[in-house]
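Cross-check.
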Amino acid sequence: MIGLGIMGLAIAEHLVAAGVSVTGTDIVAARRRMLSKTGGRAETSVAKVCPHAKVFLLSLPSSAALELVTDELCKGAARGSIVIETSTLPIPDKQMACDRLKAKGIVMLDCPLSGTGSQAKTKDLVVYASGELTAYRKVAPLFELFAREHHHVGPFGDGMKVKMLANMLVAIHNVAAAEALTLARASGLDVAQVLGLLRTGAGGSRMLDIRGPKMLAADYSPLMRLELWQKDMSIISEFARSQNVPGFLFSASVQLYAAAMAEGHVDADSSVVCKVIESLAGIERRPKPKASRAKA
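Predicted model, tokenized:
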């Protein structure tokens, strides 16, 4: 497991719990220690991971990280190895890595994941796999250990296309949920009751389910940091432009995330757009004071 962030570590933990021998690495020492505590084997570099595996799962934050990891895999991974690339990155960057590995006799699959870090912890992920079908079938049993569903969607890169469509809808639905709950609050409704009612009706969505409660509680601790979410939206915007497809709702949503970034919510969850919308509506919610403990 190369990359032990929230998503990568959760996947590794599920594999270890299922009895799979997992060796992993991350540039952050604390993340390596967390893997060790779960029963996995932690190494300090990709080069040191290579001798221990023939299947590599990548969960990386950037194309630059993918390039560096690809360098090491080209040097140290055995011919016939399979690389499962789960990150949300531009297709040309993934394709370049795939081509370099193929020249070394290594197969790369493009397998982005639909779901948040918290969903990864409960195996509530969907794998959009693409690439060589034979390789997919070989590693499919691993997907069943950490994901709710997995699908082979086509040639290499098609997984990322589906992932971008999923994230496009997530971006829009998240803002829609924030707007609806803010309107409910402004109109004097019981917002907790409204959230429950909306989740059971035709207007329900996974964003209402997952991020609605966070908006209700003004709890913007990150399921995914807004800064990383901005990276994903940039990838989606470029993809839409490359296909000459207008994205009116998506483009409007992007402005709310940009406003949240400008207000300094870089490390907050994307649900923080609710706070931005409330501010624009003149609503200010103050944190509830903590109950004081009575002295003996």
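Residues 290-296 have pLDDT under 50 and may be disordered. The CA atoms of residues 238 and 244 lie 10 Å apart. Passed to J.P. for a second look.
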